[in-house]
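Below is how a single chain appears once it has passed through the pipeline. First comes the sequence as given, then the structure the pipeline wrote out for it. We keep one example in the README because the format questions we get most often are answered faster by looking than by reading.
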Amino acid sequence: MKALLVIDVQNGLVEQGDFSQALTLMEKLIKDFKKDNHPVIFMRHFDENEESPLYKASVGSELHHSLKAYADVVLEKQTPSSFFNTKLAEVLESEGVDHLFISGFNTEFCCMFTAIAAFDRGYKVTFIEDATATVNTDETYEMKGLDIKDFVGTVLHWSEAIEVLDYDEYVEIYK
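Resulting structure:
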């Protein structure tokens, strides 16, 4: 069975830019999975640092209103990997999931770490590149012209371990 993981779509990240296109694609994915009765699991990242936009006791740590209503299962995490010290593996096992689709924030951290961790645990992994987003820019990494989503997608694709698709390719293959 397949499942969709929606990672860290929280106010503290979404409100840092215009992520309307990625959020629209995430919502389309969620609707596809729910229509077919496949699990949709949301992850929430919590930080202990009060300066963080995802500080555990702040509005920033709450799921963003655009997708919050779809969140039937919400798991909490404190590291980039959605598997480390969480109940994700147990939830996936109880649902019989063997194929995990990845979407959410931040492309180069939580989405990538989770995709690699899922592969390491034996899941087939599909990373929906344009249904991920990041608050970081080429300036963050001091790498002029860097397209973070494309770079991460290319690295994961070249690994030949993780399937990387954009939403239209996902529809063509899986719908």
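Residues 2-174 form a domain with the Rossmann fold fold (CATH 3.40.50.850).

See the next section for the split statistics.
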